[in-house]
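TA notes, week 10

Several of you asked for a full example with nothing omitted. So below is the full record: structure tokens for the whole chain, then the designed sequence directly under it. When grading your own attempts, check the secondary structure regions first.
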């Protein structure tokens, strides 16, 4: 929001930091409502929602170049403070790729859009291992909706019956992939057991264990 205040001021639009902070929180409430319905919106919607919450007359004062600068400021923080990556990720993905498996990403986005997440994957040397990446902000659908899994499968020419989804969340990943007709490996670092009927086909504690788990399930 510091960047928003600076960019807007440079365009002659005066909005206080306190107002922008409140607008950011208000946009989060709207996003939560959309996300709870397993739907999603592009990153430009996020920025427009913040501007609208900052003042009824603010959006009309923002021209396209200023809007582009605001979007860039909004998507950039994850590149400055990137998330940690499972140290076993690259080795596991390379092993599966070498065995002939087609790899794809199916990911819900939050405040950070798919365009930025691709940059992060590339930074860690992972993006090139995936044939396709499906991000919720780009397709308008979020896990656990079966449609987002179907979109990813179509993109790589796969079929649900021979596909395997890997994820950590019991609802978004396990229930979502099962509803899409896929088998699931859950990455779970805590010992809690899921309710009956919601268990994954296999559970691993980290991605280094993934190739062995896939081999045991023999989904090839």
């Amino acid at each position: 929001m510091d960047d928003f205040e600076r960019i807007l001021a440079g365009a002659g639009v005066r909005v206080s930091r306190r107002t922008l902070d409140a607008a950011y929180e208000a946009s989060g409430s709207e996003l939560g409502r959309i996300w709870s319905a397993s739907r999603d919106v592009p990153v430009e919607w996020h920025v427009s929602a913040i501007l609208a919450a900052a003042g009824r007359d603010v959006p009309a004062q923002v021209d396209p170049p200023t809007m582009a600068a605001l979007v860039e400021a909004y998507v950039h923080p994850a590149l400055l403070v990137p998330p940690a990556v499972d140290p076993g990720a690259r080795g596991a993905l390379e092993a599966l790729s070498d065995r002939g498996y087609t790899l794809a990403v199916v990911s819900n986005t939050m405040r950070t859009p798919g365009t930025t997440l691709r940059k992060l994957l590339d930074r860690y040397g992972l993006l090139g291992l995936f044939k396709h990446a499906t991000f919720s902000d780009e397709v308008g659908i979020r896990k656990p909706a079966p449609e987002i899994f179907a979109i990813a499968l179509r993109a790589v020419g796969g079929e649900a019956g021979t596909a395997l989804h890997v994820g950590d969340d019991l609802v978004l990943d396990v229930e979502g992939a099962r509803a899409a007709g896929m088998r699931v490996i859950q990455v779970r670092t805590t010992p809690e057991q899921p309710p009956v009927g919601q268990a994954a086909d296999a559970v691993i504690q980290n991605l280094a264990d993934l190739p062995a788990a896939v081999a045991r399930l023999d989904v090839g």
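The CA atoms of residues 3 and 113 lie 18 Å apart. Use that as a sanity check on your answer.
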